[in-house]
Amino acid sequence: MRMRIHLDHSRVASHLVVIGFQGRDCPTRTGPAYLAIVSTLLSQPPPLTAHHSTLFISLSVYNMGVEVPSDPAPNGYVSNPHQEKIDEALRYLRSEKQGGEGWENIDTKDGIILEKKYVQGDSSAIPIVRGHGLVKDLSAQALLSTILQPSARHLWDERFASGALLERYGRRTYKFYSVQKGVGWLVSERDIVGVQHVQDGENGAFEVVQTSVEGDPDNSGRVRATLTCAGWSVVPRGNDLEVAYVVKINPNGSIPSAVVGKIVQDIPLAVVNITNFIRNKGVPPYITNQDLKSQLRTEVVDVEKRYHEIRLIAGDTDEELKIAVDPKLFGGNWSVGVTGDGVAAEKDGDNAVVKVPAGTGRYEVKIDAA
User: Are 297 and 166 in contact (CB under 8 A)?
Assistant: First the structure.
């Protein structure tokens, strides 16, 4: 790679002021914060306007993409090598979801308290954050089904750019790859390779945790973040839900303080945003069976096109799947179609009922708004 650079330090200094550094707080030209900002400008240069003429760059870069499988469970579930990491993330969530010392208030939105906590000696540019409170008139199943749809997550998670499944260990346990948004040209995208798991509780309560794990893909060209825990704790309280969302992440790089402030607020706002998404758009379709004999391979929803596709592998006994379809999202005139030997489907009110013979093998269910 060949690069020709002209760097105007006075312009860099003006950018430092814009993003929150003032006077003596401005880093020196040889300091790590200054060099980190220059590095970011090199990787994502701003538009070359009169105000943003910091860098002039001529370069050619080959950036390898990340390959993800089209089917994370083509032959069914595989053994889970990450149970210890899941258990650690669950312990972390339970220790930080409520109470505790050191928490500072960020804001309160729609009854959800947003907080942050700095830990002495922690190298992360981002403190621990959480959003918690009582969500009115919402079912646990509606919230869980929305959390578990990565193809719709960008509609309610301000930090989420994209994601995909890498391996599936169970119906609700899988290895994933995700990309977190950058902030303009100041902060580049981060990516995460992790494992997600749902822990069912009593009377409809549940916990969802994500945490980083080792392994490919490691050729994305992005900075790999370290996720200690991104966890949901949800407990039904009558018609309401007691919800807590806790995130501890290290972006593994320097981030300007003004940008940190935005990220710190964006993350716990997910509790408010996902609630508003459900109220305004509706709930993505979900399988209501508690005991699913079939093995789930992939599940994708397109909210804008009102389309839902599920791919599975039949179990060794006959099964009847019920899939709840929210009329707010799909309307009343939706259709259900299936592929697979002997598999049949019909509408039953706001449910799609799919009858699957034992040993059918792979089959698909498609729900489409007419």
Answer: no
Integer Cα distance of 193 and 82 in angstroms: 12
Which residues have a Cβ under 8 Å from the Cβ of 206 and sit 6 or more positions away? 140, 144, 198, 199, 200, 232, 234
pLDDT digits (tens, 9 = 90+) for 175-216: 999 998 888 777 888 899 999 999 999 999 999 999 999 876
Q: How far apart are CA 13 and CA 21, in angstroms?
A: 9
CA-CA distance, 245 to 232, in Å (whole number)? 5
pTM above 0.85, yes or no: no
CA distances (Å), 131 to each of 98, 244, 346, 363, in order?
10, 6, 40, 39
Q: Please say whether the beta carbons of 358 and 317 come within 8 A.
A: yes
The strands making up 286-287's β-sheet, listed across from edge to edge, are: 286-287, 319-324, 351-356, 344-348
Secondary structure (3-state) at 203: helix
| Residue 216 CB coordination number (10 Å) | 11
